């Protein structure tokens, strides 16, 4: 068989390790999955990106850290030690001999599928401080990447001190490095109020819970917080912040101000599906699981064979947030299915807890965006990286750097502007740049979904997901440089290297045949 | 389902070639309808290097004439910026790149040789490893996303229509004429049909018994975070094509491609692969002072290629009212000219500004039936480990 020498065919992908089970994320689900897979006899690697490098945290990756990382976060060794103190079951895995890699992020998963056939199997791209980027191959991959917080724009939300509720809980609980003392939390759902409880247990004062709805979403949890002196303020949304050089000093509501050094975004806990969606796993909107989640079978397998999801990235609901045992069961179930797939055990799939029918989460998020972003009294960026406002998004305005006068589109509806069908966030992104910056859309993606839904009077889930692309963690060109088969360098060409493609038009044969290629023509590699 | 309003000309494919064709038709007052199965410019038209410097093509002169006026013609920004610099890091690269200059000069365009210091003066992110360079007083680059949307909006401003999310399923015919396009949303009558559907062009043409030989491949690019703007964004070299966008991002591609099966049902995944690491390595060599810029995404695009890699712009026999256009993987930059040429093929049956004889379909009349196999263009071939 002839091989096109300039194609990937026959080129080797440099693989640093080949393991049986790779687990990504060392939270309750990931730790349980790794332990179970190890007990079942598999060769296991468990990676977790925490402690996240300080400069990556500065870009609000993977959480909205909001500049409230304490200075000790720069000391990676101290953070690693602190992490192990916070997660004793992780130490146990080390002792069992599992290959646990902290400070190691997974930036991409690759699986053969339509339009990709070159992978030698399931491949994960990993990166750490010492090695930079490298590739591992795994027979089974369990993704347990957890959750992040929905961003919510209000004037001043780009200042230090506005951060995600789960980001704050991670800083306080896992890192012991939350640089805040008095916090106000936005949102009164179970995830927000459980995070508030955790933060109070870690010594952070929660001054108030602010909710735009008329009453708290999780009334029992709210009453519990109230009993500990937390004020519950309903029917209000942030109008701005007071600040000094160190960031937020207070939150401004319609008719009052609250002193605080941190405002915690708790209006939506979002399953962290970036790796899965970028890999090509099908994801769909599920109200009861808090947004877009991967489509899973009984063995928690995604639509990509051998890639499974467990824990919050597979869906978030109140009972699961309150009791880590649910996430652990999912991790074990995914590990059992992985063991069965590689012939190491024969567990029947377990019956896992499923979420009850939840209140209309889509409406709740839209209500927050209406009350806060749409009704804001000043212009502020919804996309912080690219500085795009809600108005610029909804009018699909060319970005400011073009210095274009307003175009005729201003008078048209979003649907007319974009064509038929629901407004597509990816199309809006390409035109306005909202979501195109270094935080990779983590802070604006859910808000833009809600904005588009509000504008076109659609259910939140009717607006398609803005796609993720690898690398799902930003990395420098130097760090992104992974080991490479020398054969790739030998055949490297900027385009396809076809013998006749760049021959000038006055010099090509009137009839093209493969046989005629025996006559070489000088051509220009493009 | 027959309530659909057809059009004088129906264009299948809302990529850059189909949109440009429809734009020029609408500009000439022709009633035109573009049918796109996804959203405009979603495929390779929106995932490319944005280069506008195709010195090998019979459409080159028209490409160079039109780009500087496209913003004004369309009424929307394309972010076109003229001129280019190509950097060679080795004598071999310099020899290779020099051939482009010969081709361009032969057609009356100018280019300067640059020594390493001149390259570094013009390209602040370049480094000590420069061997030499060329400054093209032609070509340039534009923003693919903004350009495809500009075409689509300009079509509407001229009374044309662009329908997204419509999948073509077949054709109606009468004698030597195609009379209607059948879709998942009913049929659309037409007096003339243009097929400019990228990798789908061959499959759709086959429904009309027209053989347009092509195979599809995946190619990839990476994008960095924004960096301070260099004086000129159109910087190529070291085996890479790409540009610094007007926002400041570096968007570059190059390296091996993968032959894939053309989808029967378009819209599948467009994965990128660990090849991003190989592109990153070469970009850090080309622009060493950007080595600490962070990669924030990568793209994969599916590209159609004819056997010689050259476009097909033709009126295929035996049809009296069919025009087919494939730019064979190099479509974005040429689009102002290719669309104008295709529009003229539709209205006049011939192009009055360029010699399209080298782009005719009948150049493949003696092509070996197993050409794809002979060229190694079949999918398959897992990586060895």
UniProtKB/TrEMBL annotation, chain A:
Residues in coiled coil: none
Record's keyword terms, sorted: Oxidoreductase, Pyruvate
Chain ranges of the FAD/NAD(P)-binding domain: 20-321
GO molecular function: oxidoreductase activity
Origin superkingdom: Bacteria
Pfam families in UniProt: Pyr_redox_2 (PF07992)
Signal peptide from the UniProt entry: none
Protein name: Pyruvate/2-oxoglutarate dehydrogenase complex, dihydrolipoamide dehydrogenase (E3) component
Organism encoding this protein: Paracoccus laeviglucosivorans
Taxonomic placement: Bacteria, Pseudomonadati, Pseudomonadota, Alphaproteobacteria, Rhodobacterales
TrEMBL record, chain B:
One cellular-component annotation, GO: cytoplasm
Coiled coil ranges: none
Domain Rhodanese: 9-51
Keyword Cell cycle annotated: no
Keyword Nucleus appears in the UniProt entry: no
Keywords, comma-separated and alphabetical: Oxidoreductase
GO MF assignments: oxidoreductase activity
Pfam family, one: DAO
Stated name of the protein: Sarcosine oxidase subunit beta
Species: Paracoccus laeviglucosivorans
């Amino acid at each position: 068989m002839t091989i096109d020498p300039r194609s990937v065919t026959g080129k080797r992908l440099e693989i640093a390790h080949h393991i049986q089970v790779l687990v990504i994320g060392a939270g309750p689900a990931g730790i349980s999955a790794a332990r179970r897979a190890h007990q079942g006899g598999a060769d296991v690697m468990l990676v977790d990106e925490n402690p996240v490098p300080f400069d990556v945290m500065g870009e609000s990756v993977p959480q909205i850290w909001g500049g409230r990382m304490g200075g000790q976060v720069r000391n990676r060794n101290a953070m690693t030690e602190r992490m192990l103190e916070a997660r004793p079951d992780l130490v146990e895995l080390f002792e069992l001999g599992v290959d646990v890699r902290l400070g190691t992020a997974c930036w991409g998963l690759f699986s053969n599928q339509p339009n990709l056939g070159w992978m030698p199997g399931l491949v994960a791209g990993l990166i750490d401080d010492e090695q930079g980027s490298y590739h591992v191959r795994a027979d089974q991959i369990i993704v347990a990447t957890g959750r992040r917080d929905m961003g919510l724009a209000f004037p001043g939300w780009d200042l230090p001190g506005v951060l995600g509720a789960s980001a704050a809980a991670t800083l306080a609980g896992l890192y012991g490095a939350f640089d805040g003392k008095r916090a106000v939390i936005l949102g009164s759902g179970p995830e927000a109020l459980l995070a508030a409880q955790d933060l109070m247990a870690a010594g952070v004062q929660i001054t108030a819970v602010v909710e735009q709805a008329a009453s708290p979403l999780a009334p029992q949890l709210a009453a519990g917080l109230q009993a500990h002196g937390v004020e519950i303020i309903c029917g209000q949304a942030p109008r701005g912040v007071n600040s000094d050089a160190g960031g937020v000093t207070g939150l401004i509501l319609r008719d009052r101000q609250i002193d605080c050094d941190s405002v915690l975004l708790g209006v939506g806990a979002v399953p962290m599906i970036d790796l899965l969606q970028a890999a090509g796993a099908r994801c769909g909107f599920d109200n009861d699981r808090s947004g877009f989640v991967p489509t899973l079978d009984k063995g928690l397998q995604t639509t990509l064979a051998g890639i499974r999801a467990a824990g919050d990235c597979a869906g978030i609901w109140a009972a699961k947030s309150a009791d880590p045992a649910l996430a652990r069961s999912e991790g074990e179930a995914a590990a059992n299915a992985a063991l069965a797939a590689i012939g190491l055990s024969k567990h029947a799939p377990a019956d896992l807890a499923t979420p009850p029918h939840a209140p209309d989460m889509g409406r709740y998020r839209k209500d927050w965006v209406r009350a806060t972003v749409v009704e804001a009294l000043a212009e502020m960026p919804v996309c912080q990286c690219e500085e795009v406002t809600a108005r610029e998004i909804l009018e699909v305005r060319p970005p400011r750097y073009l210095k274009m006068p307003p175009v005729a589109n201003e008078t048209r509806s979003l649907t007319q502007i974009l064509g038929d069908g629901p407004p597509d966030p990816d199309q809006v992104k390409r035109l306005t740049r909202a979501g195109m910056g270094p935080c990779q859309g983590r802070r604006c993606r859910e808000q833009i979904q809600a904005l588009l839904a509000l504008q076109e009077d659609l259910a939140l889930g009717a607006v398609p997901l803005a796609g993720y692309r690898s690398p799902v963690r930003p990395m420098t060109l130097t760090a992104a440089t992974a080991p490479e088969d020398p054969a790739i360098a030998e055949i490297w060409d900027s385009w396809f290297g076809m013998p006749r493609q760049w021959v000038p038009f006055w010099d090509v044969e009137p009839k093209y045949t493969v046989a005629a290629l025996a006559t070489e023509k000088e051509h220009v590699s493009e | 389902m027959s309530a659909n309003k057809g059009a004088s000309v129906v264009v299948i494919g809302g990529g850059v070639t189909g949109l440009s064709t429809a734009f020029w038709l609408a500009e000439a007052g022709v009633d035109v309808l573009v049918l796109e199965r996804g959203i405009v410019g979603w495929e390779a038209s929106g995932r490319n290097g944005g280069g506008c410097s195709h010195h090998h093509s019979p459409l080159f002169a028209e490409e160079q004439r039109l780009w500087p006026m496209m913003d004004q013609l369309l009424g929307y920004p394309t972010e076109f910026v003229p001129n280019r610099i190509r950097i060679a890091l080795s004598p071999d690269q310099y020899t290779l790149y020099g051939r482009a200059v010969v081709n361009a000069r032969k057609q009356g365009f100018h280019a300067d040789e640059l020594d390493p210091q001149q390259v570094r003066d013009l390209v602040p992110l370049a480094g000590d490893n420069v061997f030499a360079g060329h400054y093209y007083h032609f070509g340039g680059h534009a923003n693919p996303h903004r350009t495809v949307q500009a075409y689509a909006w300009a079509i509407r401003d001229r009374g044309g229509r662009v329908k997204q999310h419509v999948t073509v399923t077949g054709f109606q015919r009468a004698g030597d004429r195609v009379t209607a396009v059948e879709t998942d949303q009913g049929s659309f009558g037409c007096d003339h049909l243009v097929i400019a559907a990228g990798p789908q062009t061959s499959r759709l043409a086959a429904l009309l018994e027209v053989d347009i030989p092509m195979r599809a491949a995946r190619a990839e690019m990476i994008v960095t975070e924004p960096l301070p703007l260099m004086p000129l964004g159109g910087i190529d070299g070291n085996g890479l094509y790409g540009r610094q966008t007007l926002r400041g991002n570096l968007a570059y591609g190059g390296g091996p491609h993968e032959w894939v099966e053309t989808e029967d049902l378009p819209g599948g995944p467009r994965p990128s692969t660990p090849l991003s690491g190989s592109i990153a390595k070469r970009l850090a060599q080309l622009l060493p002072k950007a080595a600490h810029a962070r990669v924030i995404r990568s793209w994969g695009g599916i590209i159609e290629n004819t056997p010689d890699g050259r476009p097909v712009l033709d009126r295929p026999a035996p049809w009296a009212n069919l025009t087919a256009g494939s730019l064979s993987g190099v479509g974005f930059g040429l689009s102002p000219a290719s669309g104008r040429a295709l529009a003229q093929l539709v209205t006049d049956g011939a192009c009055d500004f360029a010699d399209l004889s080298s782009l005719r379909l009948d150049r493949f009349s003696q092509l070996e039936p197993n050409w794809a196999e002979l060229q190694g263009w079949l999918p398959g071939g897992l990586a060895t480990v």
